[in-house]
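Forgive a beginner's question, but would it be possible to get a protein, spelled out as residues, together with the matching structure tokens, please?
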Amino acid sequence: MKFGKTVVKYHILILVTAVALLVPSAIGMARTRINYDMLTYLPGDMDTVRGQDILMEDFGKGAFSFVIVEDMPLEDISAMKAQIEQVKHVDTVLWYDSFMDLSVPMEMLPQKLYDAFNSGNATMMAVFLETSTSSDDTMEAIRAIRGIAGRQCFVSGMSAMVTDLKDLCEEEEPAYVGLAVLLACAAMMLFMDSWLIPFVFLLSIGMAILLNMGTNYFLGEISYLTKALSAVLQLAVTMDYSIFLWNSYNEQKHEKSGKQAAMAAAIDQTLTSVLGSSVTTVAGFIALCFMSFSLGRDLGVVMAKGVILGVIGCVTTLPSLILLLDRALERAGHRALLPQAEKSAKRVTKIFPILLILSLLLVWPAYRGYKKTNESVYYELTETLPKDMDFAIANSRLQKQFGVGATHMILLNAGLDGDEVRAMCREMEQVEGVKYVLGLESVVGSMIPEEMLPKTAVEILKNEKWELLLVNSEYKTASEEVNRQIEALNAVLKQYDSGGMLIGEAPCTKDMIEVTDTDFKVVNAISIAAIFLIIALVEKSISLPFILVAVIELAIFINLGLPYYTGTKLPFIAPICISTIQLGATVDYAILMTTRYKRERYAGKEKREAVNTALASSIPSILVSAMGLFAATFGVARYSNIDMIRSLCNLMARGAIVSMFCVILILPSLFMLLDPVICATSVGFCKKTSCAGRKVRFQRSE
């Protein structure tokens, strides 16, 4: 009890230190950059990523957008183009007057070039920026371009999407935390025995959350998804530990003389219990770090760090706050609105064969739905945002007016012969869905010699090392059609230039599809193996890891299978993250019940009595914990307009409830069925003498 006594002795100093740490944490949080571009998490050795780097280093071009202008005189468009060129970080703007003087009729352009930039009452210019797609400078430039362009103009592209995403996130994020706190607090006030204790929990967890967010500064940057979800997840996941401490403290007050002695014992008891359960949660998040798509590492590190800080706060800051507010907490006590756990436990063990049959009947449809859901996720990042946002309207105009669904860029060896480049372009234009391939060869060699073109126009598309071509596709990013098209274009490109690269949003998204498909299998296997091993070591059992993981995996199958049956499409990241998060966060429910079942069996109780006691004692904690996780995530799921955040929170909320029912109904039923196997393959379930006695009685009864 040394640690508990130390915390109790220095509880005022602990609180002062915790409050003092909030200042650097707030500064660190404010200075942590947020990344809104999912494609930056692709492995750096992929051609698409290397190509983007070359585009930046050798061409000085990073982000790329089309600006669509409707019903505007040519002179005004030219003046607007000149203004856009003056925007900070804009490298070049490619339009008609980049090749010809406005005094020359547009009809003098080659037909391909004319059709590329004109459609009915609309014209289009290509804007290249010298900064990367999702940099802060690029987002400022997009806002400036929109300010110049006005209502008759629409700015499309990935950078415009990232800008709108950032603005929406910054608008919604305060509400995420507010809703999570409000609803989690309401759930705890109903299901716990004090009106005040939920606020104490939230104060303690809030300090740990701020410390976690502040220490993200040392990571350099985190993704918007991590920022949006980490506070909500940390609140929901670490709430369990606070509940353990509070329940333990109330028990110890009846056994110890004085609140300080009771708290010291409660701290030590909680630390022992929480370490085992928190290790499984941390392992679940660490499994995300094994993704090649490094968004998993981003989320995994931040959440694992959050759980560790939550455990530390639970056994230091929280007990210090409880000791300080002990009298107020006693006055705020009330009867918890919880069902009669003893009666419920007896009913479960009484009908356990029926529950097992029902769970077996669920396995196949749940697994089928789970597999089908994983096969039908979407990867189009723009689909995660509302259709009425500026970038979405611009993309729709681009598709409708110009028939452009996606734009690819080709980096080609500048030393390649002009005739070969033209031959390659003609071959690429025969690929299904390719509207046209634009480059110097679209102009040169048809009507205008290269020497007659303005030097600036040539420099936009060619330098000493590379030549840049634009390929406009009729197909949308992430569609099966565009992915087949990319494969065909790459095949043609490699015939003419083995070192050539096809880059852009659609090729990057295709790589992301392939990478994350492998990641899903790897992360799933690692998280299951890690948690399996931890349970085996903690419970000292061969059979229990199979049983506990099987119960939670069934809950995951049910949770992720439901979208298939309801016709709901999920963003690609949802199944990867939810499988791991739900396993890591809710296996604690199963460990809690198993630990109590083990203790009761070791104390000499018979199977049914031990299972009844374990279930009855676990129901309140599991119910409060699951409702806390549900409440913290359900509100965010209902509020958010960002489908990636909404889907993840919706799955976490439903997963908490599904896991709760699986653990309360199926796990004790499995204990009833497999008790002899568990006792024979586990250490600490029964003393040698009592086991021998049970064996003799069992043989006699036969």
